[in-house]
Design brief:
- This protein has 789 residues and is of the alpha/beta class.
- It is 42% helix and 13% strand.
- The protein is elongated.
- Bound molecules: thiamine diphosphate (TPP) and magnesium ion (MG).
- Residues 52, 55, 58, 80-82, 130-131, 167-170, 196, 198, 200-202, 333, 346 line the site of thiamine diphosphate.
Amino acid sequence: MNAPGAIIPAPTRERLHGLRQIERKLLWLSAWTIHNANHIRPNRDGLKVGGHQASCASVISIMTALYFDVLRPQDRVAVKPHAGPVFHAVNLLLGRQDAANMEGLRRMGGIQSYPSRTKDGPEVDFSTGSVGLGVALTSFASLMQDYVRLHGLDAGLPPGRCVAIAGDAELDEGNIYEALLEGWKHDVRNVWWVIDYNRQSLDSVVPDRLFGRIEGLFRDMGWNVFTLKYGRLLQAAFERPGGDALQRWIDDCPNSLYSALTFQGGGAWRAALLADLGRDAAVRAILDPLQDDELAELMTNLGGHDVDYLIEQFRLADAAGDQPTCFIAYTVKGMGLPFAGHKDNHSGLMTRDQMETFQAGMRIRPGHEWDVAEGLDLTPGEFQAVINAAPFAEKLTPAGRRLASDPIHIPDRLPVAKLAGRRTSTQAGFGDILAEIGRGQGEYAEMARRIVTTSPDVTVSTNLGPWVNRRGVFDRHTRNDVFRDAKLASAQRWGMAPGGQHIELGIAEQNLFLLLAAAGLQHSLNGARLLPVGTVYDPFVNRGLDALIYACYQDARFLLVSTPSGLTLAPEGGQHQSVNTPLIGMAADRLASFEPAYVDELAILLRHAFAHMQVPDGSAAWLRLSTRQLLQPDRVLDPEAVIAGAHWVVPPGQGARIALAYQGPVAPEAEAAFAELREDVLDAGLLAITSPDRLHAGWTAAARTRRSGTLATSHIEHILAPLARDAALVTILDGHPAAHSWLGGVRGQRVVPLGVDRFGQSGDLPDLYREYGLDTDAILDACAQALLG
Ligand SMILES: Cc1ncc(C[n+]2csc(CCOP(=O)(O)OP(=O)(O)O)c2C)c(N)n1
Ligand SMILES: [Mg+2]
């Protein structure tokens, strides 16, 4: 492997010829993969398959230069979603992908629409799809790479660069700028964003002046910027007499006109140029000798299509060091295809006739479409040698690009104080347990070393403070705590150092989830098993929701602690209520969500979360907590039931006609109502729900198992079994009641679901619980209604 910054001689003519063959091959394969999926493969449902031939075409030279010259095995790449087929074609050439998978583009089992870590195999470093997120993730991945290296937790491989190959429209996403600011604060290094600046998004050609601004923004954030506007042909033309005028004309040409002329071709270029510059003899001396196709080639010779120039510029940046670097590579969307430059080409597909012509031009014989060596100017052996000469062709490890790290032992019991008879909240309990682990004593030492916490400016108010005081704030540079040095009283001791274990973020919840995604993939990316914990106010999970879903989609492993939650944070502000989060927890895949009411349940669930995030078929976990202080019970719990989602506080009698079920901090209201209910209905049961998500997941999983002919009973079916067939359930949740109303479907029972379905009222708890029907009277009314049927 080449060390970063090593000077490598410029590619020889032969090598450049070989790289141009690779470009042809990638253009062909990506276009064919999409064509095959849409026009050749049988279509069973009549639905469009889709794919983006134009988006692929515009990034061919960039990806050739990167993958076959510049990237090293240890570099990690997020590829813009619509270049998925190019990425897979790259891997086909590298012998890391099968043509059969590519034939199956967008089919089950075939390659996915957009590169996917979980479904497309180990070559995918980062999934992409929701534009902007993959780009920003590279910045956090680099930060986390530094983190694990500075903590001595990595596998000892050379540090890589985190690279995003981005579409230009991705820079319209706000999360990009949030990530830039955060990256600047953390002095992020070794990040490259290569922007495929085709000046087209999905709908249209983008405004001209925007990127002047964007370039400045990058520089302000401490980035190096390379603007790769013109390729070597145009650069040479500009050097000639009249070249200045030609360059000025192109520089002044609006994006939309440039695109239209590109689509129309040489004749249109000539007409437009002559209309403006026809009287300039020097310009004519450049233009007149050129045939129309040569003129079109010259006028579209942009920097992002010149592999020679791209390599030179990438290498210059490489030699310049580890400063984050952005490349604005001018390109034409659809370059080399019949709809090049057309503003509507984003989802455009070549027709069968167009493909036939294209295929002939590529010299691909029918039946040989997937042959890697077909239609080249090189023998198969020569072509393979060109591929093998790429640094990236070397394997990162003998086992490939995915690293592994043994699980960290989680003690059977987390350190939790005896709390029975005392008042505390789940949020305080969480902070206390973490702080205790943070002492790093005895069997908690290794676990403490692997926990990394993060929070978007709510570290203190989510009770992470004591942990941070013990473990310190992470920074690549040591920075003292000025307040502490000046002996000014503060509960927070926030010196920053490379050994710190808390990463403090500004208020940007998408950054929180992107950082958790990066931290939660470190075992795979750098062989460093971390136990990442992120805290946020529950309502603001919504603010980062797409990034949270994205993190889980990549199978990142982390713990999200959202607190405070619900109406129960009451006087602090109706605007901060969270109503929908229990439903999000149920619907989010690869995220096991829980809401304990008491700290004994919390301790079980927290332990489970740290274990669950490390097992192959585990997932990320989410704890929804509260600041409401409850009198803690003295009892023995069945951990398995708590983890499975519900346990009986008071089991019902056999055949009982009613049960009360509560979740989270409304426990006291449910308990009080239950005491009264029991006076009338002696055998009623009181159920504590710790996870509607796990209950529902278990229920549907059991149904799936039964469909395959095997007996299975889910936890919720066991739980409800003692109740009479026509028993009623009254459920109580500080959140949307739909999270519980499905319980009636398990055994066909009646449910009266109490919860919150209106947003935004401040008040104290008595008023709010009365207003929303969660107080004891309302629960008793619901019981009466339920019993009456
Ligand atoms: C968050 C999000 N919003 C919308 C889309 C739909 N979409 C897919 S591609 C695209 C435009 C992409 O343009 P650009 O990034 O410039 O890519 P290219 O021109 O290279 O295809 C849009 C809006 C998406 N994938 N993600
Ligand atoms: Mg674009």
